[in-house]
Amino acid sequence: MRTPRGAVVVGVEDAPDARLAVRWAADEADRRAAPLHLVHALDVGYRELPPTTREYRRLRHRGERVLDSARAVLPFGFSRPVSSEIDDQPAAPALVSASGDALLTVVGARAHSIGYELLVGSVSLHLAHHAASPLVVVRESADPVAARVVVGADGSPGAETALRFALEAAAREGLTVTVLHGTSGRPGAVDQEQAKREEAIAAAVATWSAKYPEASVSVRVEPRHPARLLTDASAHARLLVVGSHGRGVLGGQRLGPVGQAALHHARCPVAFTR
Q1: How far is CA 154 from CA 125, 192, 212, 215, 221, in A?
Q2: pLDDT tens digits for range 35-55
């Protein structure tokens, strides 16, 4: 079926991280007053021979059970519209397709389709490069009571999009926002390019803070590599937000080293903005 326009889409599998993602997606759909769309991939694409009719029916039956289990972990009293689909494609292309009309796409950090990660990497990594909507990769938070959103900033348009996403999320949940910018220079040494980046960050923060005054914002500039700065800060964050760096040569979003580090090493859910 077609993804309902403006839905929060979540990848569903029989795995702990995937169930965690379903609960996170449901909470987000509730906060955004959006429908929730569950997607389960049969993953029949990487086989020497296509499945027999009997095998296909067995896979479909298993998929229905997985979707039923996902509905069972929805929060008590969840009242947003819920739809679901079973896709014959592997998980990554199925979710990329579903993300086209999505408000947000959500997956578990380690929710891989069978055999898929052996060929092209994890589902979450593929989506970080190719999803058409913002993506949230969900994992257990190191600090479940953290009350802040952490966002990386470097003065680029992608970072400004990430800042807007972070402020929107913080405003909805009553959280604070910590804007972090890591530099490679010596403490106290600011060159001309660095000064321009910090000026752009300050302007973006001022613009978006004015639009979301209910979210308290602080800015920190530290002489540390941005990847280490953000992943360390994620240990005490509700959500880490990073931006893409434009479009790559293959037509997907280009995920830089900071995004790669966040995907693999963050200690809370990570949002990749578009």
Answers
A1: 22, 14, 20, 20, 10
A2: 999 999 987 755 667 788 888
